[in-house]
Amino acid sequence: MKMAASCLAVAVNKPHISMTPSQLLFIIVLLVGTTNLSTASSPLKHFSTKTPYAWITSSKTTELVDDEMYHLTDVEGLSCSAVHANAVIRHGSRFPGLDDVLEISNVHEKLVVAMEPDVNPELYNWVNNFPSNNNKALSSLGEEEQEALGSRLAKKLHTLFSDEDFSNFKFMVSSAERTKQSASAFFEGLSTVVQGEEDDADDFDVEVNDELLRFFDLCKKYVYSVGNNKTAMKEYTTFMNSHQVVKIKDKMSEKLGISKDILTTANVRLIYLICGYETASFKSSPWCSLLDEEDMVILEYLGDLKHYYKNGYGHDITWQQSCPLLNEMFYVMDETIVEIETTEDDEEMDGFIVGHFAFGHAETVGPLLSALGLFNDSEPLLAGNFEQQEKRLFRTSEILPFSSNVLFVLYECVPEEFGEDEEIDEADYYLRLFVNEVPVKIPGCEELSCPYKTVRGLYHSFVEECDFKKICNSSHPKDEL
């Protein structure tokens, strides 16, 4: 076989680490209606993991091309078409957690007592419209995100998915209701394209699998050494109390005409989060009037620090614990290749899985990205190097927003001159990786398209040597640090 897209064999045991009319209208209304935010250079993109997917992908999804993911055009001498899609997807935009809903009301009450009514009337008269009985549930925007994502992927892989029976698709979710809601909305978008109309809900079958999608709850070493260990997040807490965030707090106090000791830096972060949540759910938020774009950039870095150490490269156990998930992705692709080869020899075979879609959390997708060696900066994110990290790769607003997704597409390749009636002993298989629908180079590969066997070798430790119990056994809460 002639390979133009060769790959470098590198060890990854430790990584080096068409928009629909309704979506377009929503974005236009959002940007026009949010008068409290800068219109010259919108800071909507700076909400870290609380960024709605449409805010960072709108420019990438305005023009859809059918089957744009279906063929490979960069593999010389081979004709390649997609045979399988395997994705891990974060749930869509959600409502804030109950703690944040209650706490922002407490902050508001504190401000109402301290400020004059005419200083910021909209904020003074603000009413908390977040449902207190809908803790972290998917919002309507989240449903729209997922339905649109399902529709777009079905169009980009139209020939692969068209006319397929849904028994040839597999959907996996965590036990959290928002992942089930996300999968259901995604299925609606997918089935509408695949079948020409929204499919009967009875055809939608999901598997609940927390072992693969909520491994962060089951890995004792991670829970002890990171999840429940405050020192694991020391860079985050240090930056929370840095002069940059204190300056934002003081500016807020001046805007409201209140004493500087009323708000805390933790209040500042909460205000930033609620600004994002409300803008996503209700088109605008008076809390945003307290933030300038330079403030948003600083608070975005605060969020990046949190997730760098909670869901990224900050501690080895964080990405190591995702090995069962990556192992499963390669196992399914291995099985797909075997079944393709078997199906070609046995016409009675029912087919193979053409789409495998798993729906999890930021704590699912973040470690997976790091295990793959993606978006890894040469210098770690620290409380003291904010200015040096202006062009960092690990920017969660862009790589880990709501509905973020990691997609492997597996391609079967035959010689270009291969005729329909000719037989071939064994096809070649290539992989391409997409993050948030954008192709990215697999670390260790020279081209975007990389031979499957080579990629599988790069992640050998995850495919062949994944021992979750051994990785996660821990007897000391601080043994990772």
From TrEMBL:
Which InterPro entries does the record cross-reference, listed alphabetically?
A: His_Pase_clade-2, His_PPase_superfam, Histidine_acid_Pase_euk
- UniProt main location, coarse: membrane
* Organism, scientific name: Aplysia californica (California sea hare)
Task: Report the subcellular localization.
Answer: Cell membrane
Q: What is its EC number?
A: 3.1.3.62, 3.1.3.80
Source lineage: Eukaryota, Metazoa, Spiralia, Lophotrochozoa, Mollusca
| Keywords assigned | Cell membrane, Glycoprotein, Hydrolase, Membrane, Signal
Q: Which reaction does it catalyse?
A: 1D-myo-inositol 1,2,4,5,6-pentakisphosphate + H2O = 1D-myo-inositol 1,2,5,6-tetrakisphosphate + phosphate; (2R)-2,3-bisphosphoglycerate + H2O = (2R)-2-phosphoglycerate + phosphate; 1D-myo-inositol 1,2,5,6-tetrakisphosphate + H2O = 1D-myo-inositol 1,2,6-trisphosphate + phosphate; 1D-myo-inositol hexakisphosphate + H2O = 1D-myo-inositol 1,2,4,5,6-pentakisphosphate + phosphate
The identity of this protein, by name, is Multiple inositol polyphosphate phosphatase 1
